[in-house]
Description:
Blueprint: H1 7-13, E1 29-34, H2 40-54, E2 62-67, H3 70-78, E3 84-91, E4 95-96, H4 98-106, E5 109-118, E6 122-125, E7 136-139, H5 141-145, H6 148-153, E8 158-161, H7 165-175, E9 180-184, H8 186-192, E10 195-198, E11 208-216, H9 220-224, E12 233-239, H10 246-256, E13 260-268, E14 276-283, H11 287-300, E15 303-310
Parallel strand pairs: 1-2, 1-3, 7-8, 7-9
Antiparallel strand pairs: 3-4, 3-11, 5-11, 6-9, 6-10, 12-14, 12-15, 13-14
Helix pairs in contact: 7-8, 10-11
Amino acid sequence: xxxxxxxxxxxxxxxxxxxxxxxxxxxxxxxxxxxxxxxxxxxxxxxxxxxxxxxxxxxxxxxxxxxxxxxxxxxxxxxxxxxxxxxxxxxxxxxxxxxxxxxxxxxxxxxxxxxxxxxxxxxxxxxxxxxxxxxxxxxxxxxxxxxxxxxxxxxxxxxxxxxxxxxxxxxxxxxxxxxxxxxxxxxxxxxxxxxxxxxxxxxxxxxxxxxxxxxxxxxxxxxxxxxxxxxxxxxxxxxxxxxxxxxxxxxxxxxxxxxxxxxxxxxxxxxxxxxxxxxxxxxxxxxxxxxxxxxxxxxxxxxxxxxxxxxxx
Length: 313
């Protein structure tokens, strides 16, 4: 599927090849993202939507739905306005998206997939603008921070934080700002009819964001389809008593089950200073071993919640 296709063409390409007896849904299969169309989340959602639609129960096309904030994404997912969501969980340079761990723990949702997206940032302007005309460059603060070398080499340009990478392109095109550029993915230029003036501004080529594909708890098994039998990774949240050795003992249970711990993240418990919820991700060869470890954790910990099981990217 071409990233340069129009939005209508991209959604049309996601048409599910299904049994002819299935009835066409009254609306598209809706996948939510936080941020504007044309963003990296949009690109990740396009990649995820093909598999999600394939596993859906009706002959549908996919629609990517932008939401202002992440809370809105999950609220719309839970109230049925969305069928699935794609949320960034970790960047290889910037680290974790802590807010999304908290939202996943507090919502009746499940992680059913993950994907990796190579992050590439481009200087995007109105068509016909020359580099010498530029005075300001807008983008999300994380994107600006990942393009420091570009700004060091072009000190005449002011780096201005903006709410969204793709949103910066949407803004400059809407207001017809010739002296302003945005730093955003290639898809943003296609989405808003802008032009790419310079490519690959990021300081490090090894720049990846990992995304989670999320659905309502009750839909998880159906939406995973054939992948449900091939899952090999799990995300779990747990909390332990605040005394020496409890975290080590919990992690030892995972080690004893021969699980490959790939990530651990701690988040503070609201209203309980210096107490934490720990999020772990681990890979496994057999689901029975992972489930046995979860049962052991349940006897050891205050709280254990499985956030999802899925095929590792």
